[in-house]
């Protein structure tokens, strides 16, 4: 074996430091969701690594349901697989409270944390500590084909009712030519069909629990919600809708097969992108629908970057998060791909920018975000916060099981009454097991 003199090793290391090329770069493992904004970020990370040559990035890119499962398992078991996690507004307060996340209160002053929109920032803060930085923020809204709406002889109001959506969807449907009046989430998952259906149920006067934490799926309001949804999808939805989540509906809309799509405001940049959307020049926007009870069917969410408490690379992880969620990153995307493709919904300065104000969906996105109040999500008083979710640890498992029941109803495998009965029973059982009321 050839031995290297200690003096030579020291000289080599010193020379590496002088040259700015450390002997070994630190590798950050980043778990993220497979949506367009995150994939775009990966393509732009040369900007980060050029500024931080001592940090290398390794990506784990996963479908939404799988990402949630993997990062939840990893952080709960202190697995330490990831240094940066993409997590949502549901996880942050629960995990922050448990001490599972690193505080980001010491991000540099240049980051300008006060620029983050209050509705988004509040959802990522626990006891004064910011536990995640928002990559993009969203509510939900109606995206629709102006040409098909005109052809149906209708005009979309800025604030439509569900009755109008039902009428318009049926009028726009032309199944023979594979044009469906509405595309809505049907894929089972607490963040897939249940995000949409929970927000919708709020606007119908439904709720998950009463003030004693008793499940409410046996209520008339839930029956009205599910019946409306299933009838609408049967009459005006695409075939195989029980398998469709965000990405599947996006593809349908971009290829001209949907008259309307009610989903995340972040989708607006994709459906108006002429490179990928056949209907880019025909897309209009409206607030999420209501039934006149005072609540709209729109949610509030942010996909955010956080550091698990088990990471051994906290300082490097903070550098990456500060880069990816900064004003400079927004400007970088704008310079490469135009203002319409900038991650939306996080910073007040973006909405004050006259260039961004020209983007067709900017105003409606901000109005939708500002209209969402997670502290008062329902018509009646409830013991929980969260609009498209209930901010308790048990919700993830319960809502996934309920989502499977509702997806089965959409597929025609069970009736409305049976799906609701099953949802009520499984939720009651899970809540009893968890010791509610607490």
Account of the 3D structure:
- This protein has two domains: 23-137 and 301-357, Periplasmic binding protein-like II (D-Maltodextrin-Binding Protein, domain 2, 3-Layer(aba) Sandwich), CATH 3.40.190; 140-298 and 367-433, Periplasmic binding protein-like II (D-Maltodextrin-Binding Protein, domain 2), CATH 3.40.190.10.
- The chain is built from 19 helices and eleven strands.
- It has helices spanning 6-19, 36-43, 46-51, 64-76, 91-97, 118-122, 146-151, 162-172, 193-203, 220-236, 246-254, 268-271, 314-324, 327-337, 348-352, 354-357, 362-371, 395-410, 416-433, and strands spanning 26-33, 55-62, 84-87, 125-126, 129-130, 133-138, 140-145, 180-183, 258-264, 283-287, 301-306.
- A five-stranded mixed β-sheet has the order 2-1-3-11-6.
- Strand 4 (125-126) and strand 5 (129-130) form a beta hairpin.
- Helix 18 (395-410) packs antiparallel against helix 19.
- The longest helix is centred in the last third of the chain and has 18 residues, at 416-433.
In short:
The protein is 42% helix and 13% strand. It has 438 residues and is α/β, with parallel strands linked by helices. It has 2 domains: 172 residues, Periplasmic binding protein-like II (D-Maltodextrin-Binding Protein, domain 2), CATH 3.40.190; 226 residues, 3-Layer(aba) Sandwich (D-Maltodextrin-Binding Protein, domain 2).
